[in-house]
Fold these 4 entries.
Entry 1:
Amino acid sequence: KVLVGNAYTAIDHHQIKFLPQALIEIDSSGVIDRVLEPTAPDYQAAYQAAQQAHLLEKVPADQVIFPGFVDLHVHAPQWPQAGLALDKPLAAWLNDYTFPLEAKYQDLDFARQVYHELVHELLAQGTTTVLFFGTIHPEANLVLGEESLHQGLRTLIGRVAMDNPDQTPAYYRDSSSQAAIVATETFIHQLNDLGKDNPLSPIPVITPRFVPSCTDATLAGLGRLARKYDLPVQSHVSESNWEHQYAIDRFGIHDAAVLDHFGLLTSRTVLAHATQLTPEDQALLRQRKTAIAHCPISNAYFGNGVLPVNDLLAAKNRVGLGTDISGGYSPSLYDNLRHAVALSQVRNDGISRDDEGIANSRISMVASFYLATVGGAEALNLPVGRIQAGKIADLQVVKDRFKRPTETAQERFERILYQTHRSEIMQVYTQGDQVYQA
Ligand code: GUN
Ligand code: FE
C-alpha cells in the first residue's frame, strides 16, 4: 500500500517535520519502506508504479496524516465510569466507585460489552497503541486482548495485582501474595498464546496497582516475574500527596525508591502521574530509563499538582501521554495534549496574582504532540510513533475543516491539533491495515 498526502511527524520535542505530498510506501508486513518527498529522484517512478499496481491511496488536500497516538495509561474496566465522581479525593474515588466497578468484571459478558465499545472508541480517537490496566480477573483481561486483536488495536495488557488487606476491599483483592503471583504468571502464558504470530498480539505487562495496594511479598514476586520473562512493568507513582506520604510512612522512603528496591524500575517500566516526585526520584527514574505517563486531565483531579514536563524533557527523562481513563474523563489524546499545554502555562504563570509560578514550565503544542507519538513509542520500546522508513505504519488521517490559504505548515499543524473533533478523524491504520473509518 502507498499513501500519498500531507504528513507531519515529530523530530524531537522542539521540532516537527512537515512532509508535503509525501509518498509513504508500506510493505506487506505493515512496515514503512520509504518516505519520499516530491523532490526525491525516485518520486515520480514510485508514484506511477503504485498507481499502475492499484496500490495508491491519495489523501485529499483537506486532510493530513499523523502517526497514530500512543496512550500510556488506560484503565480499561473504568470506561463505564469515565466522567463520574471526579470531585472526590483519590482514596474515596477508588474505594467508593472504582473498586466496586472493577469487581464486576468477573462477569465476562459485561467485560465483552465494555471492552468491545472501548477498543472501538480508542481507535476512533486516533489512538493506535494502548498500555492497559485490566482487573484482577485473568479471563476478563483475555477478553480485552481478544477485542483489541480483533479490532486491530496494538496493546499491552496488565493483570492488576493488589493483595494488601489494609488498602483493598475483601470483595476485590488477591487472596494472598502467592495467589497474585500465580494468577499473574498464568495470565502471561494465556496472553502469549493469543494471536501468537499476529504482530498486533497483546503483550503482557507486570502490573502492581500501586505501592499501597501491594504487600512486600507481592512487590518482590512481581519484580522476579518481570526479570524472569523480561516483560514491561506498569504502576502508579507519587500520584497524590496521600499516596506519596503513604510510602514514606510504611517504608521510610519514597514510592519510586520502593519500586526500585523490588526490581520494578526498569527500562521497560511506565509509571503514571509522578506529580509528587522529588528531583532525586526523577533522577532515579532517569537512571533506570523508566518512563512517565503524563496524564494531564487526571492530574487536575487527583494529582495535587502539575507535572514539570518541560524540566523532565530537558533532563532527558522519558515521558509520554496517558488519558488515565477514568481518572481522566476523556478517551481522546487530543484532549490530553491540549490540557498538557494549558496546564504547563498555569504552572508557569501561577494560580493567582500573588503567585509568580515556576519559570520555564511552558511546553508547546509541538512538545505535546511529541509526547503523544514519539514519547509514548519510546517509553514502550516500540518502533511506532514516527512517519519514517523502518517504523511500523500506525497512522491516522485527519480532516481539516477550515481552509486558511495564507497560514504556514507549522500554523496549520497547531490549529489542527487544537481543533480536530472525533468526527474528523477519517481513517486509522495499524500495521499498515485500515482498522477504522469515520
Ligand atoms: N491509584 C491506584 N489505582 C488507581 C486508579 O485506578 N486510578 C488512578 N488514577 N490512580 C490509582
Ligand atoms: Fe491510573
Note: Residues 45 and 395 are 24 Å apart (CA to CA).
Entry 2:
Amino acid sequence: MLHPRPSELSLSAFVAHYGDIYEHSPWVAEAAWQQGLREEHDSPGALAILMGKMLQNAPAEQQVAIIQAHPDLAGKAALAGALTQDSTREQAGAGLDKCSKEEFSRFEALNEAYKNKFGFPFVIAVKGLDRHAILAAFEERLHNDVLTERATAIEQIVRIACFRLTARALGE
Ligand code: GUN
C-alpha cells in the first residue's frame, strides 16, 4: 500500500508526493487525480495503471515531451551527478555507473545515433537488466521506425513508473 494514501490526498498534496513518478512531468499525477482517486488507487499497481492511461491517452506532443524529459543512459548528466534520485538509482542498479571507458564510448555513440534518428533519447526500463542487455536492446531498437519507437518509449516509461511506485510502497 502507498503511504501517504493517494485517495486521501488533496490535488496539491498528491502532486507533491507523486508528481515525480513521471520524470519532470507532474501533469501526469494531476491528470490522474482529476479522474477521481478511490481506495483501490492506494495500491501501487492500480495507481500505475491509472497514471499510465493518462500518458497513453495524451496528445503525441505531450508524449514526445515526456520522452525528452529523460536523461541519456550512462550520459554526461549521470557522470556529473545531475540526475533525479530515481534515475540515479535506476542507472546504478543496472551497473551503468560501472561502465568501462569502452562501454561509456559505446553508450555515447548509441545515444547520439538514436537521438539523431528519432529526435528523443533512448528510454528503457532498466530494472532487472544489466548493461550488456541494455546495449543489445539499444542496438536492436535503433532499427525501428519512429512511430514504433515512440510507442515503445511510452510503454517503457509506464513500466518505469510502475517500478517507481512499487519501490515507494516498499519504502525503498
Ligand atoms: N530507464 C530507467 N531510468 C532511466 C533514465 O534515467 N533514463 C533513461 N533514458 N532510461 C531510463
Note: The chain is about 60% helix and 0% strand.
Entry 3:
Amino acid sequence: RTIFNNVELLPPDALFNIKKRLTDDSRPVKVDLGIGAYRDDSGKPWVLPSVREAERLVREDPSYNHEYLSITGFTGLTDGAAKVLLGEESAALKEGRVASVQSLSGTGALHLAAKFLSKTCPEKSVYLSEPTWANHKAIFESQGLQTATYPYWNAATKSLDLEKYLEAIYSASRGSIFVLHACAHNPTGLDPTEQQWTKILDAMAANDHIVLFDSAYQGFASGNLDKDAFAVRLGLQKLATVSPILVCQSFAKNVGMYGERVGAFHVVLPVPETGVEVQNVKAAVTSQLAKITRSELSNPPAYGAKVVSQVLNNKELRAQWYRDMETMSSRIQKMRHALRDHLVALKTPGNWDHIVQQIGMFSYTGLSSEMVQRLEKEHAVYLVSSGRASIAGLNSGNVEHVARAIHEVVT
Ligand code: PLP
C-alpha cells in the first residue's frame, strides 16, 4: 500500500508546460512561440493539401483495414523515406547497404539508435552540439550512454564556432558518436555552409567517427527537400568506406503529421571489406532493431505510415508535397522579415538581422531568460527560456504585438 508514497514528483516538461500555461491564460491576445509546430497565417494547425489527398486515397483503397503492420513497419514508408533523404541515386541504397525500420517519429528513431548503440558499443561517448534539442541528452542517457558536447554556437558572433567544433572532432576518442542536425539546427537556426560541412565530414572520416544524422526538418531550411538533404548525402559519400552512419528521420514537421508519430531509422553500412557479406550484416542489424521494437511496441502504428507512404510514392502527391513545403517555409521566411522590420522600425536596441539570417522553424533570438519571463508575464508572448522562438507561431495578426513586446522588454 505504501510502496509509491515516496515517489519523487518531477517538474513538468518545460516545453509542453508552456502550452498548458498558454491555455490557462485568459488574456485576449496571446502568442505561442514555444513548440515547433507549423501554423497558418490565422494561427491554426495546417493539414497539408498533399496529406489530405493521401488520406483520401488511403481510406478509399479497397484493401483499407487496420491490421497490424510487420515489426519493422510499412515498407512503402521505410523505402520512400530512405529515398527522399538519402537520394534516389544513393550508392548505399543501390548496393543494398541500408537497413531501415519504421519508428515512432524522430524521437522513436533516436530511441532505437540509442538502444542499438547501448547494445553494440556501450563504451562509446555520444557527442551533442552545444546547444542542442533538449531531448537529445535524455534519450541517449536513458539508455546508459555517456554524453558529451561539442562547441557549435558562438553567442558573441551569433555564428558557427567551426574552429572549436573541428578541434572537438579531433580530440574525441577515435570512433566516437557525433549527433549532427541534418538541417535547420534546433535551437539555433544556424546550419554549416556547404564548405563547412565538407570540413566537418572530412574530419569525421579522418577520425573514424560514427555520425548520427538527426533529420527532423528536411524541407524547412531552404524550402527544398533535396537541398536540405545535402549534409546527409555528403556524409554518405565521405564515410562510405570508413564507418556506418545512423539516420533518424521524422515526418512530424515536414508532412505536418505531428501526433501520428511517423518516422524511420536507417543504419547505412559502409562498403564492406573483402570477405564480409553486407547482406548478412544488414540482416543482423535489422533483426536487432526488430527485437527492440517487438518488446516495446510489438509493431509500429499503421495509419500515418500509410498516408506518408502515399505522399512519398505517388508522383502527383509528391510534387504537391514539395509545393506544400515551399508554402510553409516561405510563410516562415516572411514572418522573419516582418518581425525584424518591425523591430528596426521601433528602433529596438541591438541588431536583429540574425532573425532573417537564421533558417528553419526557429530563431535563437538572444533574449535572456528574464526577458522571456517578462514577455510571458506582461505581454502573453510565450517562448522557451533559452530565447528560442518558433517563428511558425507568428502571423500577420500578431507579429506587430510580438515586436512591441520584445521592444518593451529589451529597452
Ligand atoms: N530532433 C530534433 C532536433 C527535433 O527538434 C525534434 C522535435 O522537435 C525531434 C528530433 C523529434 O520530433 P518528433 O519525435 O516529433 O518527430
Note: The first strand starts at residue 31 and ends at 32.
Entry 4:
Amino acid sequence: MAPESLKTLRPLDFAWGRIPSFRRGIRQAQGFYPERSRRIKKGILITFEGPEGCGKSTHAKLLYDYLKARHAPVRTREPGGTKFGEKIRSVLLHSKGMDISVLAELFLFEACRAQLVKEVIVPALADKRIVICDRFSDATTAYQGYGGGIPLKQIEQLNEMATRRLNPDLTILLDVDVVTGLRRARAKGADRMEKKEVSYHKRLRAGYLKLSRENPDRIKIIEVEKDIAKTQKLVRREVMSVIQRYIRAR
Ligand code: TMP
C-alpha cells in the first residue's frame, strides 16, 4: 500500500504538454498507436543512483507507475535485469563464504551491464521508450572505483565497453547520510555489499557527489526526505524537464 502522503501526488502536478484530444484518447485506448512512439523523439535513459538505503528502488518504481499510462516505460535494474544478470546478481550479493576480489567483482558487474545493454536497454531506446534503470555505470565508478580503489581510468574503459558508450540522459542521485542509509538497508538483512565497512560506503558516497559536481547537467542530486512524496515530487520535476525536451512540438 502506498503511504498516505503519496496520494497527494497527482499526474497533473507537472506539465505534460497538451492534453490529448478526445478522439486521440479513444484511438490510443483502442491501441491504434501508443502516445509514446508518436510524441517522444528518441529513447530516454534515466538512471537512479545513491548510497545504500537511499530509497532508489522505491522511487524508481513510483516514477515508473507515474509514467506508465502515457509513456509505457521500461523499468530494469543493475546488477540484473536479464536472466543472466539476475543469476550473477545473486552471486554478487548473496554468496556466502567466498572471498570475491574487487577486480572479480568489477568484471561481474560489467558482465551484467553488457548483457543488459544489449538485451534490454539498446532495443528499448531504439523503440523510443523511456528506460528507468536502477543503477548503471556510475555505480561502478562510485563502488569499485572510489570505494574499492580500482583506478578510475580502467573503470571508465570497461564502462565504455559494456555500455557501448551509452550515457544516461538523466541520473537521479538520491543522497543520504551513510550511517542512516546503512542502518535502513541493514535492517532488512545486509547483503555482501552492505556488509562492507562504513569507510568504504563513505568513500563511495563522496565519489557519487564528486561525479555529480563533474556532470552537473546530467546528474541531479536530490536529498532524501523522510516524506517519500516530497522526494518523489522532486524526482518527477527533474524527469519531466528532460522528457519535455524530447517531446515533439505539435
Ligand atoms: P541494490 O539493488 O540495492 O542497489 O544492490 C546492488 C548492489 O550492488 C549495491 O550494493 C551497489 C552494488 N553495485 C556495485 O557495487 N557496482 C555496480 O556497478 C552496481 C551496478 C551495483
Note: The beta strands are 44-49, 74-77, 130-134, 170-175, 219-223.
